[in-house]
Design goal:
Length: 410
């Protein structure tokens, strides 16, 4: 309601007066049409008003004796905007001290034009796609260098965002990755982009950071969580991960009180790699009996039954579960309300699914910086939809308050 009250309204009489000379409605939006002319005229009138303020007297008016500066004609300037290319006459003064606010010196783009380019870039469009789209929509020719320069300005935002302070406590932190292709030393290689998604005390999702990994391992993950710790993240109740090498060890080093929970969906997915297609449905159903058990003892019993049945064919599956058992069993210490939000990394998987739609259009990224630019802008769009707490958050939070009373903020 408040925004509607602030919105500028134009009297119908004024609009009718302006449209008297416009006999064909198609002339409104045509090249060189009424809307573009009106845009140019309004800009020129505003610039003239700025010049009057700068000089201290109106055009053709009498200047004071103290004022030595005068108007000095006009210069032609072409601007790129959402109406296309608009040509205007820029007023000049004799001592070149006039600094217009509406259209600053050396500026050739109307406000909002860069934002349109960034919006297209955030949706995964390549530089060439953006060039073609801008030409088709606005009739404006832009170069690949122009698009690159506009998006380059985002890198400063990315650095500030990546180094911003974090909250002291995130009850749940999810960690996952997606693979992108990056040009490196004249070769195109697959690189893993790791994402950490936190859930704050209000149940709202927040991307804590992103990192392109060279060598996944404990040393790499230790540097990631050291960074998060230095930025203010001092505690988390549960870290939900998908078995990335060295990740549980790094978390337990910096956050010894945090319980590391492996994602059951990833565990099942990794288990089914060893299974022939005709057995997959049955094996998946038997694995569910393990992670859906009510207690740890029952889960161990179900694992033994699974091993008896499937070890003759797929012995590697029970071996996989036993080797990761210490990071499977934390699940059974929690009531149903918390299990629903930690047994899977779906919260971050849905983020990755949205990001893959964007990165898929970029068959190859020319640099690491290009990856960060695209993902950051895409995340900005995705985060706009995070207006509600995650599912089952209120009962889960109540359980956290009981289980972690000494660490739970008052």
């Amino acid at each position: 309601m408040e925004e509607e009250e602030k919105r500028m309204t134009i009297r119908r009489e004024l609009i009718d007066e302006l449209l008297k000379e416009c006999s064909d409605p198609k002339q409104l939006l045509a090249e060189g049409g009424f809307l573009k002319q009106l845009t140019g005229a309004l800009i020129e009138r505003c610039l003239e008003a700025e010049m009057e303020e700068h000089l201290g007297y109106p055009k053709h008016g009498k200047r004071t004796e103290e004022c030595t500066n005068v108007r000095n004609g006009r210069s032609r300037k072409t601007l790129k905007g959402s109406q296309g290319v608009v040509s205007i006459d820029m007023p000049r003064d004799r001592d070149a001290s006039f600094e217009p606010v509406l259209i600053p010196k050396h500026e050739t783009r109307l406000e909002g034009f860069d934002e349109k380019i960034l919006a297209l870039y955030a949706r995964g469009m390549t530089t060439r796609d953006i060039q073609a789209q801008i030409q088709e929509l606005y009739g404006v020719d832009i170069s690949a260098t122009f698009v690159s320069n506009v998006t380059e300005a985002v890198l400063d935002e990315v650095r500030q965002w990546q180094n911003r302070p974090l909250e002291v406590l995130y009850p749940i932190v999810y960690v996952d990755c997606l693979v992108v292709k990056v040009r490196e030393n004249q070769r195109i290689i697959n690189r893993a982009l790791y994402l950490a998604l936190g859930v704050n005390m209000q149940g709202q999702k927040e991307l804590l950071g992103m990192w392109l990994g060279h060598n996944e391992g404990a040393k790499f993950w230790l540097s990631v969580f050291t960074e998060l710790h230095n930025r203010g993240l001092k505690d988390m109740f549960v870290a939900c991960v998908d078995g990335l090498t060295g990740l549980p060890e790094a978390i337990e080093t910096l956050y010894p009180q945090t319980q590391v929970q492996l994602c059951m969906v990833h565990m099942v997915r990794n288990s089914l790699k060893y299974v022939s297609y005709k057995h997959r449905k049955e094996v998946a159903a038997d694995l569910k009996q393990i992670y859906a058990a009510a207690t740890e003892m029952e889960a161990e019993f179900q694992l033994e039954l699974f091993a008896e049945k499937w070890d003759p064919k797929y012995a590697s599956i029970s071996k996989l579960w036993r080797s990761h058992w210490s990071h499977v069993i934390p699940l059974f210490t929690y009531p149903e309300d918390i299990r629903k939000v930690i047994y899977t990394t779906n919260a971050i998987e849905s983020v990755n699914m949205s990001l893959r739609k964007v990165t898929r259009n970029h068959r190859m990224f020319p640099s690491e910086e290009a990856v960060y630019k695209v993902v950051y802008l895409a995340m900005f769009n995705i985060a706009k939809k995070w207006t509600m707490p995650i599912y089952h958050w209120v009962p889960a939070l109540n359980c956290f308050a009981l289980l972690f009373g000494e660490r739970f903020p008052q």
